[in-house]
Amino acid sequence: MSTNDSNIIGIGIESTAHTLGASIVDSTKILSDVKDVYKAPEGAGIHPREASRHHTEKASEIVKQALNKARVKPKELRFVAYSMGPGLGPCLRVGAVVARTLSSYLKLPLIPVNHAVGHIEIGAMLTGATDPVALLVSGGHTVICAFESGRWRIFGETLDLSIGQLLDQFGREVGFASPCGARIEQHALKSSNLLSLPYSVKGQDVSYSGMLTAAKKMIHSGQRFEDICYSLQETGFAMLVEVAERAIAFTEKKQLLVVGGVAANKRLSEMLKEVSTRHSASLHVVPLLYSGDCGAQIAWTGLQAYKAGVQIPVEKSIVRQSWRLDQVDVPWRNF
Ligand code: AMP
Ligand code: MG
Question: Residue 59 and residue 141: Cα distance in Å, rounded?
Answer without folding.
Answer: 25
